[in-house]
Design a protein that fits this description.
The complex is a heterodimer.
Chain A lengths: L1 H20 L1 E7 L7 E7 H14 L10 H4 L1 H13 L3 E7 L4 E7 L2 E7 L5 E7 H7 L9 H7 L6 E8 L2 E7 L1
Antiparallel strand pairs in A: 1-2, 1-8, 3-4, 4-5, 5-6, 6-7, 7-8
Helix pairs in contact in A: 2-6, 5-6
Chain B lengths: L1 H19 L4 E13 L4 E8 H9 L10 E3 L2 E2 L2 E2 H14 L2 E7 L3 E8 L2 E8 L2 E9 H7 L6 E3 H8 L4 E7 L3 E10 L5
Helix pairs in contact in B: 4-5
The chains are: A alpha+beta, B alpha+beta.
Chain lengths: 174, 187
């Protein structure tokens, strides 16, 4: 009995550790009676490790070439800082006959909601900390470590929610 | 028993407090832009805290050359310095009609009344553009030197302004810019 408990304790402890560090869950539900449901849990620590080692594999891909884009990074950073410090509220609403786009600041994140002409609904929540860390530094390099670290800030967050008819894709972190 | 009821009531009040507070109102001034095009059945609403507008202007060195001043140079044959001088002279005149341009089917009028500068453009007797700018805003914008508009001073004045700034109605589209303390536009 003690042996069994000891054997079970290892995976349970491992699972508990992974869960405590966060898990990103991708949940896909296909429409129709034969529609599949696919749930993929990815330990956040794995995603962080992948992002952290990315520069060793693709150094150039994590560097913005020295061009006009870099000149505007300061502006983007300034705007993001001001938005982060600003109170919550609706920033942009675009309404057309059959489409609607909404950008709302909610706490430390921006939520973008698109209602498409075919009835589809796309909702994306972008944590500002992730956007900050995704901005390149002065030399054009994106700090993979900072980006990996910022992923821990997205815990207990619905990142993506896409509904198209009966199909539903949801990505969240807990 | 009584203590636990009081504690529960206190907790409930704490939880309910954010719901009771006016969530749509903040002390931060927000600038709102609404563009409506009836023919396209299109509406664009942009709401930005003035602090974000300030950050954009401060972080864009190509727009703001230095110390929050925009250098305009010469426009339409009149230097900004001349505009500044004319504005100072008009300030002493008090309420007055500043400009009237009457074309075949268009009339443009600029006048000062009280603490507002009004601009009206009428086409075929119908009001198309209405702009109301506080005198203090023009004063602040023109407080720079040479060919510079003092954007920082103008923004500082805008922080005090509440209400409509610009209304344009050209038949096809309606544009409205105003400032209030609401973090969304009224539906």
């Amino acid at each position: 009995m003690v042996k069994l408990a000891a054997i079970l304790a290892v995976p349970v402890a491992l699972l508990a550790t992974v869960a405590s560090l966060g898990v990103m869950v991708v949940d896909v539900r296909e429409a129709g009676p034969d529609g599949h449901r696919i749930v993929v849990p990815v330990p956040l620590v794995l995603a962080q490790a992948a992002v952290a080692v990315a520069p060793a594999i693709a150094e150039e891909e994590l560097r913005i070439p020295d061009n006009d884009v870099l000149e505007h990074i300061g502006l983007a950073r300034g705007v993001l800082e001001a938005i982060a410090a600003a109170p919550d509220g609706e920033l942009v609403r675009v309404e057309e006959a059959d489409e609607q786009v909404l950008v709302v600041k909610e706490g430390n994140a921006l939520r973008v909601h698109v209602h498409g002409r075919n009835g589809e609904d796309v909702s994306v929540r972008v944590p500002l900390s992730v956007v900050f860390n995704a901005l390149p530094r002065g030399d054009g390099r994106i700090s993979a470590l900072a980006l990996a670290g910022s992923l821990s800030a997205v815990r207990f967050t619905d990142l993506v929610d896409v509904r198209d008819g009966d199909s539903h894709v949801r990505v969240w972190v807990w | 028993m009584k203590k636990s009821v009081l504690a529960a009531a206190f907790l409930a009040a704490l939880v309910a407090l954010p719901a009771v507070a006016p969530s749509a109102e903040t002390a931060t001034p927000w600038i709102h832009v609404r563009v409506e095009e009836a023919q396209k059945d299109s509406r664009v609403h942009v709401n930005l805290p003035l602090s974000v507008v300030e950050a954009v202007l401060e972080a864009a060195p190509e727009i703001i050359e230095s110390h929050g001043k925009v250098h305009l140079g010469q426009h339409h044959g009149m230097k900004l310095e001349d505009v500044r001088r004319a504005w100072k002279e008009l300030a002493s005149a008090g309420d007055a009609e500043l400009v009237t341009v009457e074309d075949e089917d268009e009339t443009v009028k600029v006048w000062r009344k009280g603490d507002q500068v009004h601009v009206r453009v009428e086409k075929a007797g119908k009001e198309e553009v209405r702009v109301e700018v506080p005198v203090s805003l023009v004063d602040a914008a023109l407080s720079g030197e040479g060919d510079s508009i003092d954007v920082k001073a103008a923004l500082s004045e805008l922080r005090k302004k509440r209400g409509d700034i610009v209304q344009v109605n050209d038949g096809d589209s309606v544009v409205r810019v105003w400032i209030d303390e609401q973090n969304a536009q009224a539906k």
